[in-house]
């Protein structure tokens, strides 16, 4: 006759295994890109972007749902080429997923159930379309607009004359196969192959200037001079930036002022005034 404890254990084991299987299935579903809404079928593909929830939209694209739909409408107007395999919304979604999440072409091809070649063609085309749209949005604001929208924090800190905040931003690249390109794009600061951009924003956060792309090895000084940021600045303008940013000779001649945090290079410590000013910046 079997031990009652053994019988009880035998009865509990399937339930335990079932629970573990359910937990594994839940984990799989949480991370599966092919859950409902991401499955195959032309009808579901057409509706995929439109049926994204708010949280999913922000996760996949970085945009709130209303902004994603507004951008989709702009893409429809700007695009001169039609890809029938996906709706405009799904094409935009594919592109933003590639940019935001860094998903591989093969991964995106499986998510949207199209060929890798179609993913590549759509992504290349959408980059061109988005560039055409965004270049109309990035404009240098009039000084009166900048002053009228000055955040209170700038006024309270004594930097109410700030025209823009400028900084060089870097984006990682896949390691180039050619040795020359690999050397030219290597950034010692990031310890990675990158491209760099000079970006200037108004104190209220509006992006007013984006330079062309430069190789990661290019210095901030070279980019500042070559990007022609100085064409937008004049007497009385103040630029806020991080340590290492320098004004061009032309900017200095025009009377542009630079506000940067103080640094201890060549001296043992910062003065009390420098500490206070740095904290305000």
What does this structure look like?
- This protein is of the alpha/beta class and 281 residues long.
- It folds into 2 domains: 42-137; 143-280, no CATH class.
- It has 13 helices and 7 strands.
- Strands 1, 2, 3, 4, 5, 6 and 7 form a 7-stranded mixed β-sheet that branches.
- Strand 2 (186-187) and strand 3 (192-201) form a beta hairpin.
- The longest helix has 28 residues, at 4-31.
- Residues 4-47 have low confidence and may be disordered.
- Residues 167-281 form the DDE Tnp4 domain.
- This is DDE Tnp4 domain-containing protein.
- GO terms for molecular function: metal ion binding.
- Its cofactor is a divalent metal cation.
Summarize the structure.
This protein has 281 residues and is an alpha/beta fold.
Q: What summary fits the major beta sheet?
A: 7 strands, mixed
Q: What is the count of DSSP helices, taking H or I runs of 4+ residues?
A: 13
Q: Mean pLDDT, rounded to whole units?
A: 83
- Tally the structural domains: 2
SS class: alpha/beta
Protein name: DDE Tnp4 domain-containing protein
InterPro entries: HARBI1_dom, Transposase_HTH_dom
Cofactor: a divalent metal cation
Domain DDE Tnp4: 167-281
């Amino acid at each position: 006759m079997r031990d009652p404890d053994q019988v009880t254990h035998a009865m509990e084991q399937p339930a335990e295994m079932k629970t573990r299987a359910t937990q594994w299935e839940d984990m799989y579903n949480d991370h599966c890109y092919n859950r409902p809404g991401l499955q195959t079928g032309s009808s579901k593909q057409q509706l995929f972007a439109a049926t994204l929830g708010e949280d999913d939209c922000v996760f996949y694209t970085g945009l709130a749902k209303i902004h994603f739909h507004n951008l989709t409408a702009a893409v429809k107007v700007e695009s001169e080429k039609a890809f029938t395999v996906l709706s405009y919304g799904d094409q935009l979604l594919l592109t933003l997923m590639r940019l935001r999440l860094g998903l591989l072409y093969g991964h995106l091809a499986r998510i949207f159930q199209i060929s890798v070649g179609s993913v590549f063609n759509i992504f290349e085309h959408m980059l061109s379309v988005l560039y055409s749209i965004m270049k109309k949005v990035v404009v240098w604001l009039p000084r009166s607009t900048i002053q009228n929208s000055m955040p209170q924090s700038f006024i309270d800190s004594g930097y109410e004359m700030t025209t823009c905040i400028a900084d060089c931003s870097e984006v990682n690249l896949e390691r180039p196969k050619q040795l020359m390109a690999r050397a030219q794009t290597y950034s010692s600061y990031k310890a990675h192959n990158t491209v760099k951009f000079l970006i200037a924003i108004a104190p209220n956060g509006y992006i007013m200037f984006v330079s062309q792309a430069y190789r990661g090895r290019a210095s901030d000084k070279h980019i500042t001079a070559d990007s022609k940021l100085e064409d937008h600045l004049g007497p009385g303008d103040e630029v806020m930036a991080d340590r290492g940013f320098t004004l061009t000779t032309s900017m200095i001649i025009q009377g542009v002022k630079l506000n940067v945090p103080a640094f201890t290079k060549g001296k043992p410590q910062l003065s009390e005034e420098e500490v206070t000013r740095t904290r305000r910046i």
